[in-house]
Amino acid sequence: MTGATGPRGSPGRASRGRLLSLDSLEPGEARAIDGLLFDLDDTFLDHGRLAPDAYRVLHDLAGAGLALGVVTGRPAGWGDPLARQWPVLAVVSENGAIVHARRGEHVELLDPGGGARPERRRRLADLVAQLRARHPELRDADDTPLRLTDHTFDVGERLRAPEALVVAARRTARALGARTTTSSLHLHVTLDGADKATGALWALARLRGLDPAAARARWAYVGDSGNDAAAFAAFALTFGVANLRGDLTLPPRYLARAPRAAGFVEIARALLAARGSRRSLVDDPRPASYAGAPMSNAARLPTADDPQPALLALASEHLYPNYRQPPLVLVRGEGSRVWDAAGRCYLDLCAGIAVSSLGHAHPRLVRALSEQAARLVHTSNYFFNEPNLRLAARLTAASGMDRAFFCNSGTEAIEALLKLARRHFHSRGEPARRVVLAFDESFHGRTLGALAVTGQPKYQEGFGDLPGARHVPYGDEAAVERAMGPDVAAILVEPIQGEGGVRPAPLGFLAALRRIADAHGALLFADEVQTGVGRTGTFLAVQQEGVLADAVALAKGLGGGVPIGAVVCREALAAALPPGTHGSTFGGGPLASAAALAVLDALEEDSLLERVRSLGEHLAQRLAAVAASAPGRVEQARGRGLLQALVLARDVDARGVLERVREAGVLLTIAGGQGLRFSPALTVTRDELDEGVEVVERVLRGLP
């Protein structure tokens, strides 16, 4: 775009229809405003990139006492990182439909639309399908899958759509009941009533306790004078960067000479000068900072200089290549959202494979770790430590067991169970009892002992003989009975096979295993590494069937993200592993124990078990509806609580679907080859679950 072509006004106040030069801005007018709302694209950013001077001048404005707000047509995913890392009160995204508001150190998602968002998204999907049918030439914008409230077509970003097509598409969308917004790049179609101006005014009024009229009078607006006519009409005092269209009927009051970010800097300098603010970081060569955050970490918008490619190069050169990670580097998280090194936000519905039970950066967990790290981090098991003793008491009470042994992972907990079974019968004079009965499609870990009882040959290939296990079909009571013998020391079962595809045990199967083990004098072990610590709605999944195992393996969610594993067992097994027979240098350390205590506190004090049961029912209903709507692509939905999966048909490329879901901003994992596994934080919200399911549904609808 080019500079301004409109008329320049004379100094002094002018009618709304005249453009004034910035040097005519009166001090009284400048001092009368409390805040500044600015548009992002073509106003503050230069072609999507952050100009350092523009960012620095934000701190000048904030330092001068102005509250700052951002408004943009960009997807809602932009709002959270900007609200956290820029000196702003709120970010209003998707053309006024979504608000991320700064609340101290936290960010709150507000909805100017007043709720019922999932229903509007469903209606919008139907409307867009009709729009595409009438105008098949329309092409989606790159960021369309990331949006919560509108659908965006590319009319000038990668391709130049004919003006006649844009006009016809707008007419059709409006006839179908939608509202449209156009810019030089995009055509937005939405069912939300808010636009940039009304959505921003709603947010400002709510956050400042004002009525809309007061918000109009006490905030100034800075926008791209090519696209922001509605906002110029809404606010009493307005500034435009010089991207003026000749036919603009509602111009700003004051117009900068420079375009884009340079125009924003020009406006900020004039405003600060008129208010009598002297200090300017724009003229300071040192990096700007705000609330202790360095300039280099503040913007986090993708640029050509972004460090993510360099970090990925380090991975390629130095990491052992035994994992299959996508090309992104996660650097930060809060709640059920994470951000990569390029600044992109993702909805995390895998939670580190059911590990981050309280989500990311939970204040309770952060506080527990900081306080414990300041006191005592490690002691070894030559000495007791206080947090571990308290954890042992809490954990045995919650599980109905008597004793607790601590290690660092689920695999280590399984190894402890295997040694426990053999040593128990050895001490009783039955050394021949060494076989552990396990199940096809099970997964218990990757050490040699855990691999032996894992019922998936693909994990065992290449590691030679792995004796000591016998496998039978999962859920087949008769097969278990036939496999029992005098050499069986224990039955090892997952109440829900996680890596096997999120397959719950048939009703009554766990109780049958208890009866069979008792009848043959064997032990019953439950692998609750993935299902334990509230994941299914009770502390242990076996508790839902009224079954008491002899010992249980725990890990994953117990530490909320801090490595910890545990075995809890009945008193009858307490003497099986005397001193010197098993141990763990780091097991039960004070730091990990403090983290686990924080997780247990949250389960009890925040009523998370009840929450998991309620959200689990909701998620099951949503996934069942997706399965019913896509019979050729989805076999079934299954699972319990917040461990569920959408099992795709065998001819569907599950990893391809997973990748497309990730590209749309949602993180899931694969289980059992074809299952899209949902294992979110226990603190996830209903809206976040809906958001994730809708992305999956949209991806499935788009499959060829």
Brief write-up:
By secondary structure, this protein is of the alpha/beta class. It is 35% helix and 19% strand.
Category from helices, strands and their pairing: alpha/beta
Radius of gyration: 30 Å
Count up the helices: 22
Shape annotation: elongated
What share of residues are in beta strands? 15-25%
Topology, number of strands:
33
Mean pLDDT level: 86
Through-space gap between termini: 39 Å
Structure description:
There is one protein chain. This protein is α/β, with parallel strands linked by helices and 704 residues long. The protein is 35% helix and 19% strand. The radius of gyration is 30 Å and the shape is elongated. Helix 6 crosses helix 7 and helix 12 (363-373) runs antiparallel to helix 19 (590-605). Helix 3 links the parallel strand 5 (67-71) and strand 6 (90-93). The chain starts with 19 loop residues before the first strand and ends with a helix. The strands form eight sheets. Strands 1-14-13-12-2-5-6-7-8 form a nine-stranded mixed β-sheet, sandwiched between helices. A seven-stranded mixed β-sheet has the order 20-28-27-26-23-21-22, with helices on both faces. A four-stranded mixed β-sheet has the order 17-18-19-31.
